[in-house]
Amino acid sequence: MIATQKKLQSLRATLGRMASALIAYSGGVDSTFLLKVAADVLNGKVLAVTAASAIYPQEELQEARRIARSLGVRHETISTDELADEDFSANPPQRCYYCKRELFRRLLDIAQREGIAFVLDATNLDDCSDFRPGTKAAKEAGVKSPLVEASLTKADIRALSKEMGLPTWDRPSMACLASRFPYGEAITAEKLARVEQAEKLLRQMGFSQVRVRSHGALARIEVEADRVHRLAEPEVNAKVVEEFKALGFVYVTLDLQGYRSGSLNEPLRKE
Question: In this predicted model, what pLDDT tens digit does every residue of 15-42 receive, in sequence order?
């Protein structure tokens, strides 16, 4: 914990050199932690901005608003339409780049309008080990990633968040719904809504960290490895199959490896 505290001190020092900051805020573990520390260090000279879109579950938007209010931070919501961009909806490996490029352009416009010195995202050190095209868009836009600069990992952030009493400290990892589709499979609003409803159903059944990877008519379910056995129980299995088929899936499968971040990037890593 001493090493983690030193990283926190480094983060505070970095933020302390900023006159003001706009934070790309999702309401998740990392962005809530960054928002809390920035608000404390900058004496409230912080604006949190959350994108509302078909690629983000509505529950996450509501939670982001609630947490921002509880932290006493000024919060704005903007509407984005990633699906209108064919470079995004065609779902190439660089999909995230096109999404973040437009988002950061919007955030920079707001920062300029508000006279805010820096735009920040909540990328952490662990994110740097995966395929993340959005980081290129951040660099091009001049968006800062102070959690990376302070070498803060997800485990560090969870530990510090718990210490600070943040409600997100043990929240499951989040990712936009577009990450549920194999590269090359076109993304539509209908497909996004189907995945959102499928994951909501699993959470209502008591599963916490879930992903429903959509491979055309086939749903590939990922839950934490120690919960895989529960999905295989006859009653649970039957309910999931029934509900998923009602949503339009033809085949319903369980990934025996369990949940892992960026599983759809695995073919890229092999290449």
Answer: 999 999 999 999 999 999 999 999 999 9
